[in-house]
């Protein structure tokens, strides 16, 4: 379990951070809360002290004999700054040390995660843009704000991600030990979920993919500093923090969204389960049972192979393309034989091969796989959480970038 410093900035979103604190302590972490002076105008010291079970200080002049800014910063496995206001990030970017939090930011050597929340105008102001860039260049993780309702009547980019998503993000960063954000400056695109091909307004051909592996990949890439576009086909999981989410339904929509997002991507991962066939005709009204008791015949046609298309039409030869394959062994070959053949047929750089059966793969939290490389390499990943497999995939992608 980790020693976390939770730096709270002076924004209205501070009230949501009490929930983040609660989730972190319930996961077993020791959390020292360091609010700014203005944060305490939104949520008072007793709330932070009660939820963390620790004393709360704002100034370096409290308990000076302990030199708290040095001690707290050095001990921290991770510093989480949330909400990160425009003012707080400006002070951090300038290297100011005018309170306990900014002083701590200068003494810590562990990962620092900023979760900004502010009005869209402030987020987009060139001063804030430059400060965020400075912090990222120095190795900090600055989570992209969510789009949605802001304080008051306005909506836009600048919303704090949900507490559960912030907690998941921090968990992912901690799972990497002290490893720095090695995908900063990279744009990665991940597809997730399963497509639906509609027959009529109420029926579709679908599949069992939950989207968990794709979401784990998106979350892991964000925790490593990448700009992430997540193209989700019919997924009902919480939105990962700091990720651009594009929702699609059918294989054709997924194709268009992936081609558009891949245009400036450094890496593309096709984790979605794509329908291979779709009904030739879509009926505008619900298909009724016929009076003579006969069954309808539904004619299907092939959909485009998105992975093969992306592999063959890379905007730059340096782009890394990754596919997934759910396989079962059969009389014609083993799971890995089929995997090797599929890697060659798709033309991608890496293929993550899962053995699937009735009780493996789809809805489960865990996954085991072999990652095959076009260079002949193969990496076995034992049964474990989907986030662990995700990080292995990004290690292999990073090595190829
Ligand atoms: N895929 C794709 N477009 C399709 C079908 C599959 O991009 N129309 C991608 C999947 O996202 C996955 C990989 O191809 O990354 C392999 O998917 P899989 O269903 O195992 O392969 P298929 O080509 O459908 O082969 P099979 O005949 O074994 O079903």
3D structure, described in words:
The protein has 401 residues and is α/β, with parallel strands linked by helices. The protein has 2 domains: 3-175, Rossmann fold (3-Layer(aba) Sandwich); 187-400, CoaB-like (Rossmann fold), CATH 3.40.50. Helices cover 34% and strands 25% of the residues. It contains 14 helices and 19 strands. The strands form 5 sheets. It has an 8-stranded mixed beta sheet with strand order 12-11-8-13-16-17-18-19, sandwiched between helices. A 5-stranded parallel beta sheet has the order 2-1-3-4-5, sandwiched between helices. It has a two-stranded antiparallel ribbon with strand order 6-7. Strand 18 (366-373) and strand 19 (378-385) form a beta hairpin. Helix 1 packs parallel to helix 3, helix 1 crosses helix 9 (163-174) and helix 10 crosses helix 14 (386-400). The model has no long low-confidence stretch (mean pLDDT 94). The site of cytidine-5'-triphosphate has 13 residues, from helix 12 and strand 16. Its EC number is 4.1.1.36, 6.3.2.5. In the N-terminal section; belongs to the HFCD (homo-oligomeric flavin containing Cys decarboxylase) superfamily. In the C-terminal section; belongs to the PPC synthetase family. CTP binds at residues 276, 286, 324, 342, 346.
